[in-house]
Structure formats: C-alpha cells, structure tokens
Specification:
By secondary structure, the protein is an alpha+beta fold. Helix content is 38%, strand content 14%. It has 2 domains: 184 residues, Class II aldolase/adducin N-terminal domain (L-fuculose-1-phosphate Aldolase, 3-Layer(aba) Sandwich); 211 residues, L-fuculose-1-phosphate Aldolase.
Length: 431
C-alpha cells in the first residue's frame, strides 16, 4: 500500500501524528500506550512517560541515543525496555506501537488470540499473531518474553492481561497493522453478540488477494475540468469523514462517483484511506484508467453497477464495525427498527463472500431502487445512492441500525415494525 511520504518528517513529528490519530480513534487513553521509531543512527525516539496523549507535542518526544544517553524534557516511556528488545531482536522493524485498545485488551484478559481470517485483508496485513505471557510492565522480563515472540517472526503480539504490541517497517506500516488487528477483534466480539462468527478459509483469502484489478488500458490524455475536480474533492472529504467516524479503516474501503455518462472517479487500491488526496483518485473514462494509477480492485463491480443502474450516481464499499457483525455471522440485518432505517434501506440482503469479485453477477442482479445496499459475508457492506452525501447518510443509518440491534441483543427479542406500519411508510415516503 502506498503510504504518506514521511521520509522528510522528523521522527518526533511522525510519532505525534500517529499517537494523535490513535488517541482520537479511541484506541488508547490519556495515559496509556507508547510509540517509538528507531532511526538510521540506531537512536530510539519514544513517547514520554506520564504525558497526556491527547495533547502530545513534538517537543515532548524523548530520544534514547545508541550509547544510552537520554535527551528530552521528560522520562522515556516506562515500556521502553521492550521496545529496545524488539529492535535488537528484529533489525528490519523500524517502528513499534503498544497500546490497550478495548477489543484487543478483551482478548488479552480472556487469553485468546483473534483469528484474522475473519476479514480478507487482515491475514496479509497482520500476519500470524504471537502471544506473550504476563510479566510486570516496564520490566526487562517483559521485554524478553515479547522479544521471544518477535524472534519467532510475529509482527503483532497479544500481551497477556495487558494489551498488544505491533511492529512495522515504518510507523505507518505499524499503525495499519495495529488498526486492522483491533478491527478484527471488534468484529469478532460484535459478531459473538448477535450470532456465531464464520471464518474464511485460506483459499478464500488467496482468492481475494488474487483479485488484482483487471488493468484497464491507460488513457493517452487526461482532462480535469472543474466538475471533475469538484468530484475529487467530494470523494476525498467523504473518505476522510468515514475514517473519522469509524466507518472505514485505512486498509479497506472504496468510494466512487459517476461523472459523465458511465464515466466515473474511484478511490485507488494502494493508498491508506485516511490519507487519500485529490491527486490519488482515479478517473475511469470510456473504459480506460488514468495513467500510472491503480484503481480499486472493485472497479469492475462499480463500473457494472453504473452501467446497469442509471439512477445510481455514487457507491461506497466499506467495513463498518457493527454492520460487519452481520457480515461475519451471515445473520440477516432486520432494518425494521425505526421508520428512518426502513425508509432509507428497505431490505439489506446478505450475499456470499466473493460475490463482489470480477465477473460475478449476484450483487448486480440485486442492486436496485428497492435494494440499495447489500452485506457481503466476511467482507464488507456496499451502499448505493444518488448524491454521495446521501449515500454516506444511508451508510450511517445502516451502521446505526446495526449498532442498535447489536446493543439490543442483550435486552431482549427485537419487536420490529409490523407489515401494516411498513405499508404506511411505503405509501407516504416511497409511493
């Protein structure tokens, strides 16, 4: 995946950027967690001990020089010993994130490892997950047990009764691994609330990875008139908003908007979603792609939906946390919860994993004015609509409905809006 170019960013600035994102995403607390980078000199830049993660500044970041000299305004994180141990164990790891995100802490206190085969991209991003037995935080013993797991080749480790630690080739790589692993944990937990999660076979994950976009021929000349540039800005803002709202993670998600006729613009396959910029978005015109760019692997599906459904002008395909509970359990999402949910969604069928692959017809035969959204088992939710903001609203309504149903499962049996009430809604709002 193409990453934000941090080659000219100081380690202090990289760390403050990522710790801010972790904190604002609800993946750590004011006092919890630590982040580090080892630079080309062997110096380790690390978050300080006992400084508010919600207001951390670059000047707060500590450095432990290769010779052991400590520089900075504070004390280095108390967990610095295991950061150092990991770097000594795995020289190719250049950045480390440790935190106590809620779902992975849940796994750590029941002493289980999340099965990343729950969603397709996670096995490739996270790899196999290690498990480090409990030792006192900040101790050399904890560093040793964690380093032993990294010695085995793991780049993500569940820490018994503690949390998780992940490493990466750089800090953005580590963050994507951290975020994706926590998302897997949440998906499994929410799935267990409403049913029994199903997992993908290794062969299905390989099939997903092999869905490299059919490389459309490149255009010889690209034009960017003002209406096209306006669509780029709209897509960028919605993708960033989806990430901010927890409706999309950096490793998965596609947004497209019809431009003229059946031409459209679509997000790329190789850019972290929270960092997508206008210039990353790919124009698809007359069956050709913008030169030098790799559009989403779902481009074929979007192209066919636009071709067959003139009323559809925007599409969002994403993984949002509570809808994914229905995706992985293959349970039916009953949107007869409140009037708004049914009016916006009407019916949300589940389709088998792989229905979104190139050449498959299942989704194409379902999408219509009366079926604007589908849940793809163990993969995602696909939502269609007219204006992109309206499609995003539909996604939010679907996610809120799924969240209400997931939370309501502990209270009692769902009592849906009845057929007579639905018919009244149909006549008033859809007639």
């Amino acid at each position: 995946m193409k990453k934000l170019d941090t080659s000219l960013m100081h380690p202090r600035d990289q760390i403050t950027m990522i710790i801010d994102k972790i904190y604002r995403s609800g993946l750590t607390t004011t006092s919890g967690g630590n982040v580090s980078i080892i630079d080309e000199n062997g110096d380790i830049w690390v978050t300080p001990s006992a400084v508010d993660k919600g207001s951390l500044r670059a000047s707060d970041i500590m450095v432990v020089r290769k010779d052991g000299t400590i520089e900075g305004r504070h004390k280095p994180s108390s967990e610095y010993p295991f950061h150092r141990a990991i770097y000594e164990s795995r020289p190719e790891i250049k950045a480390i994130i440790h935190a106590h995100p809620p779902a992975l802490v849940s796994f750590s206190i029941v002493r289980q490892i999340p099965d990343t085969n729950i969603i397709p991209q996670a096995k490739h991003i996270c790899g196999d997950i290690g498990y480090a037995t409990y030792e006192v935080p900040g101790s050399n013993e904890l560093g040793k047990v964690i380093a032993r797991e990294f010695d085995k080749g793991f780049s993500a480790v569940i820490m018994e009764n503690h949390g998780t630690v992940v490493g990466g080739s750089d800090l953005l790589d580590a963050f994507q691994r951290f975020e994706t692993l926590e998302f897997c944990g949440r998906t499994i937990i929410y799935g267990n609330t409403i049913g029994t999660p199903n997992y993908l076979a290794h062969e299905q994950i390989e099939e997903f990875e092999n869905q490299i976009p059919r490389l459309l021929p490149e255009m010889e000349q690209v034009e960017h008139p003002s209406d096209e540039r306006a669509i780029r800005e709209e897509i960028k803002r919605i993708v960033h908003r989806a990430c901010d709202q927890g409706l999309m993670i950096s490793s998965y998600g596609t947004v497209s908007v019809r431009w003229r006729g059946n031409d459209f613009l679509i997000t790329p396959t190789d850019v972290a979603r929270w960092n997508i910029q206008n210039e990353d978005i790919v124009q698809i015109k007359n069956g050709k792609r913008e030169p030098g760019k790799l559009p989403s692997r779902a481009t074929w599906l979007h192209q066919e939906i636009y071709r067959r459904n003139p009323e559809v002008n925007s599409i969002i395909l994403t993984q949002s946390p509570h809808l994914m509970a229905y995706s992985v359990t293959h349970e039916k999402l009953n949107v007869r919860t409140i009037p708004e949910s049914w009016i916006f969604l009407q019916d949300v069928p589940n389709v088998p994993f792989g229905s979104h692959f190139a050449g498959e017809e299942t989704i194409l035969k379902l999408i219509s004015k009366d079926t604007p959204a589908v849940i793809i088992n163990n993969d995602s939710v696909l939502v269609t609509g007219d204006k992109l903001l309206g499609t995003f609203d539909r996604l939010e309504v679907a996610e809120f409905s799924a969240q209400s149903l997931t939370m309501g499962a502990s209270l009692g049996k769902l009592i849906p809006i009845n057929d007579n009430q639905v018919e009244a809604l149909r006549k008033k709002f859809l007639g």
